[in-house]
Amino acid sequence: MTLSDVTKAELVELAGRYPQPRSALLPMLHLVQSAEGSVTNEGIEVCAQILGISAAEVSGVATFYTMYKRRPMGEHHVGICTNTLCAVMGGDLIFERLKGHLDVGNDETTEDGKVTLEHIECNAACDFAPVMTVNWEFFDQQTPESAIEVVDKLRAGETVQATRGATITSWREAERVLAGFEDGRADEGPAAAGPSLAGLEIAAERGWRAPSVDETHPEPDAVADTKKGAAEQADTSRAESETVIEQSPAKTSEETTKEGKDD
Ligand code: FES
After folding, report:
1. Least confident of 30-39, 108-117, 221-230, 237-246
2. Residue-range domains of the chain with CATH
3. Please, are residues 181 and 10 in contact by the beta-carbon 8 Å criterion?
4. Are 86 and 95 in contact (CB under 8 A)?
5. Of 86, 131, 159, 204, which residue has the fewest beta carbons closer than 10 angstroms?
């Protein structure tokens, strides 16, 4: 596949969004994935040309982060968190069951090209463990059965709604959003939910509160006063030590030599 002129223009647009164009590399690689289905060699070359860096530098980034894929992806990316908490809460079991159900290994795609399965690291959703993601949308508190139901619906082309987040589209469409081209669905579906809010409710019951901004971020004047005080103290200490040195002048080389002879 060849990158279209439209995609190349969008890559240039992304580079123009940052004071340092090379800062745009991560979203540019997401856009390449959206257009090509993976980070292709051509995509790497084009990003390098636009940013004025080497293909090796782009390749180094594309192979460092696991969200960038060098092999063609399925229509949907299904991630099972097997990091510590999710693993003990059932993530390992879900992953094993899905591998068998889909007849794929880690980072492999089903024969029909619909689902790429991957075990993923902590998604900062531990309070909903074990979690699964579909195109990076959350499916909370999963079981092997609920996960199998989701992937079956995806393969059948049925509508699937994330438990926290938007209706599932496709991995490529999600990659375009990650590149910085909004699809207008950022507020679709539920966001914060029970487990994340439990701490807030307990704090409200017990009258606990977070420190105020004033406590955690003192006014600049207060910070300046503290620094000024510390600087004045440092000056005083330095002056005192200089006085001590002046009162105890170092021995001259002649005195040192004489002492040596006397010994
Ligand atoms: S361990 Fe799974 S989201 Fe944190």
Report:
1. 237-246
2. 5-64 (1.10.10), 76-171+182-198 (3.40.30.10)
3. yes
4. no
5. 159
Q: Check pLDDT > 60 for residue 45.
A: yes
> How far is Cα 116 from Cα 79, in angstroms, rounded to an integer?
8
Sequence-ordered strand ranges (E) for the chain: 76-81, 108-109, 115-120, 132-134, 137-139
Testing ligand 1's pocket by substitution, the residue of 122, 141, 163 carrying the most ligand atoms inside 8 A of its CB is 122
Higher pLDDT pick, 199 / 39: 39
Please report how the helices 5-15 and 25-36 are oriented relative to each other, as an axis angle in degrees rounded to 10.
160
Retrieve residue 238's tokens.
Answer: 């330095």
Predicted local distance difference test score (pLDDT) of residue 186: 84
pLDDT at 245 over 90: no
Q: Does ligand 1 have an atom closer than 6 angstroms to the CB of 131?
A: yes
Are 91 and 118 in contact, with CB atoms under 8 Å apart?
Answer: no
* Model confidence, pTM: 0.77
Q: How far is the CA of 79 from the centre of ligand 1 (A)?
A: 11
pLDDT mean across residues, the chain: 88
Quote the CA–CA distance of 85 and 124 in Å, as a whole number: 11
Alpha-carbon distance of 102 to 151, in angstroms, equals 9
Dig out the tokens for 204 from the structure.
Answer: 């409200």
Question: For the residues 101-107, what does the mean pLDDT come to?
Answer: 97
User: What count of other Cβ atoms lies within 10 Å of the Cβ of residue 253?
Assistant: 8
Q: How far apart are the C-alpha atoms of 162 and 229, rounded to whole Å?
A: 55
Q: Establish whether residue 160 lines the binding site of ligand 1, counting it when its CB lies within 6 angstroms of any ligand atom.
A: no
Tokens linked to 9: 């223009």
Please give the share of the chain, as a percent, with pLDDT higher than 70: 83
3-class SS of residue 55: helix
